[in-house]
Structure formats: structure tokens, C-alpha cells
């Protein structure tokens, strides 16, 4: 987000609406590791 040119890049906060606990875990994992793990079981949460 920080390099995307999107308005969220300069926002103090970013609101994540309708996110599940597993979805939030995936976001945090991506923020900290730079990797996104996709599988048949979790791919639906990225829609």
C-alpha cells in the first residue's frame, strides 16, 4: 500500500471492513514477512 499511489498510502489509519480473524492473520503475516500463502482452503478469503 505504501508504494501503490493509493490514498491509503498517506492515511494515518486504514479501515479493514468485513475481515475474518483468518483474513487479518493473513494480512499481518504479509506485512511482517512479505509473503502470502495461498491454498485451496484459504483462497476464498481473498475475494
How much helicity do the residues have? 25-40%
Quick one: biggest sheet? none
Structural class: mainly alpha
Low-confidence stretches: none
- Overall mean confidence score, pLDDT: 77
**Using DSSP, what is the number of strands?**
0
| Helix run count | 1
Tally of separate domains: 1
First-last Cα distance = 18 Å
Describe the structure in your own words.
It is a single chain. The chain has 1 helix and no strands. By secondary structure, it is an all-alpha fold. The protein has one domain (7-46). The radius of gyration is 12 Å and the shape is globular. The relative contact order is 0.14. The model has no long low-confidence stretch (mean pLDDT 77).
